[in-house]
């Protein structure tokens, strides 16, 4: 059997979109499952869209996501490097290769030189629009003589090269997700293959590269499905075998529209910055458009590799559901050690001005316990400050439920008993935190909800939250005393 070779071929136009990460992920899963090779190729032939630093961003995003590849473009010691025997893997370094095949197509009369100016093309399009026709190149240069065209080029005229698609011909191909797809050439433009700047268009470059790089399966977003007949025609024209096409359903938002920047986070970088874990994002993204036969939803990369097949990729768009992503991510947060989560969360604490980096380092054990206290309730790491902020700064009791708890008859007695216990110690240690509630119960005879709820309300301002003994330990003696004092303002004998 032929070795499986797949590729991810992003254009360096900015950050990696999560739809792109999903395409990369499916390629990766398929390659690993079939002991094949996975290649990262950079498609930078559209010079107007090139963004500095985008290659590094792409490579780093894949690295962060744990999606490794075997050949292509890497980023090492601050430099973009290429590895593999089929390079270069950056299209702008392959211009001579494309030119050779464009020339071959011209010689075979499968492509032609076109000298139409932008003004002429605009005019044609405008006329077609008025007539209610689909805008399309009108074939003005299609019948011109090759000798004549070569003379015009020698005279320095600007030109492009267009594909000479046969008229009214059905082009059919098999797609692993869509099945048999047939498109008539009358619905397709005479695609520009080479632009006036000497750069190939995507369509020319993708076919040449996929062929020369030995790609067996082209796994990409379904927005490329309408272009595929042109590619199929090019394979035939050049006498090459076309790869297996696999078009993936678009990643949609809940309104079934394409996920776009306007609605919030779309790049892998956005998700990373908000504190999604790579395992969570990978696992969730795999499920947007694919499901394993056993219906399992929580899967490591290894498990996904084992289960991945194209025949379980859906035809209709995959809905990106943030709540489900959060649910999956929460699972992986629980799987990580508290130390790891603490390390990864530190930046959010600093950013929210709750602690400085020095404070975190100095009070590391305290900080790890702080994280442990809220870890189970986290979906994303950026939620940490919000969840722990009640332990910092002055306590403000705003919740009606908390005020209600503090108005109970027994509360002043509880507060006094707590203060008495605090007076017996120099500092609040774990031993104290673990036993103080029992001691207050003993001293006052108050127990159960009557005991726990008001104490929780008094020191945290809330009736729900993490374990009371952790809160007590984390606040420490002085803060507990000051909060208990403040809580008195809400007790009955004062407010009445
Ligand atoms: N450069 C194209 C993109 O960024 C790749 C499409 C393909 O995989 O053929 O979407």
Key terms for this structure?
13 strands; 4-stranded mixed beta sheet; binds glutamic acid; 496 residues
Can you offer a commentary on this structure?
By secondary structure, this protein is an alpha/beta fold. Helix content is 46%, strand content 11%. It has helices spanning 18-33, 54-64, 95-107, 118-130, 146-154, 202-212, 228-237, 268-274, 278-287, 301-307, 322-335, 338-351, 357-362, 364-375, 384-388, 400-406, 411-423, 430-444, 449-460, 468-487, 492-495; strands spanning 5-8, 37-40, 71-76, 79-83, 111-114, 160-163, 170-175, 179-184, 192-194, 217-221, 244-248, 251-252, 318-319. Strand 2, helix 2 (54-64) and strand 3 form a beta-alpha-beta unit. The protein is elongated, with a radius of gyration of 32 Å. 34% of the residues are buried.
Query: Sheet with the most strands?
Result: 4 strands, mixed
Distance between the termini: 86 Å
Strand content: 5-15%
Helix content: 40-55%
**Net shape:** elongated
Pairing-aware structural class of the strands and helices?
alpha/beta
Unique ligands: glutamic acid
Poorly predicted ranges: none
Give me the count of strands.
13
Main sheet strand line-up: 1-2-3-4
List the SSEs and their pairings:
Blueprint: E1 5-8, H1 18-33, E2 37-40, H2 54-64, E3 71-76, E4 79-83, H3 95-107, E5 111-114, H4 118-130, H5 146-154, E6 160-163, E7 170-175, E8 179-184, E9 192-194, H6 202-212, E10 217-221, H7 228-237, E11 244-248, E12 251-252, H8 268-274, H9 278-287, H10 301-307, E13 318-319, H11 322-335, H12 338-351, H13 357-362, H14 364-375, H15 384-388, H16 400-406, H17 411-423, H18 430-444, H19 449-460, H20 468-487, H21 492-495
Parallel strand pairs: 1-2, 2-3, 10-11, 12-13
Antiparallel strand pairs: 3-4, 5-6, 6-9, 7-8
Bound molecules: glutamic acid.
Glutamic acid binds at residues 9-11, 43, 202, 206, 220, 224.
